[in-house]
Amino acid sequence: MEKIAFVMTLLPGHEVEYKKRHDEIWPELVEALKSAGVSDYSIFYEQSSNKLFAVLKRSTGHTMEQLPLQAIVKKWWGYMADIMQTNSDNSPVVEPIKLVFHLE
């Protein structure tokens, strides 16, 4: 199992809507993530910067790189594009975070 983290940016004033959409996450999207080897996925919100901090675990042999090719993922990106910073294909602008300390 590998743990990774990244940040995304929420557009100002959309924290409640972002949480609502994730509280109602589509079962098909959850299945796609789990099938790709993703587990223990959390997203935190930092209000002063509008940053979304995400951390997840992915299994050895994961297929996360295939997720952007799936229709359900593209549909989710389109659904979320109005409330967060996105690329031209509606994928979220993601900034990887480098691990510098871990305590188990």
Describe the structure in your own words.
The mean pLDDT is 96. The protein has a four-stranded antiparallel β-sheet. Helix content is 27%, strand content 27%. The chain contains three helices and four strands; from the N terminus they run βααββαβ. It has 104 residues and is of the alpha+beta class. It has helices at residues 15-23, 27-35, 71-80, and strands at residues 2-9, 38-46, 51-58, 95-97. It has a single domain (2-97), classed as Alpha-Beta Plaits.
Question: What's a concise summary of this model?
Answer:
With about 100 residues, this protein is an alpha+beta fold.
What key attributes describe this structure?
3 helices; 27% strand; 104 residues; single chain
Annotate the secondary structure layout.
Blueprint: E1 2-9, H1 15-23, H2 27-35, E2 38-46, E3 51-58, H3 71-80, E4 95-97
Antiparallel strand pairs: 1-3, 1-4, 2-3
Total E-strand runs: 4
Percentage of residues in DSSP E strands: 25-35%
Could you name the CATH topology? Answer: Alpha-Beta Plaits
The low-confidence runs, each spanning 5 or more residues with pLDDT under 50, are: none
What is the number of helical segments per DSSP (H or I, 4+ residues)? 3
**What series of H and E elements makes up the topology?**
EHHEEHE
Shape: globular
The total tally of domains equals 1
CATH secondary-structure class:
Alpha Beta
- Cα distance spanning the termini: 14 Å
Order of strands in the sheet with most strands: 2-3-1-4
Q: Can you name the CATH architecture?
A: 2-Layer Sandwich
What is the oligomer described by this structure? single chain
| Backbone CA Rg | 14 Å
Largest sheet: 4 strands, antiparallel
Helix content: 25-40%
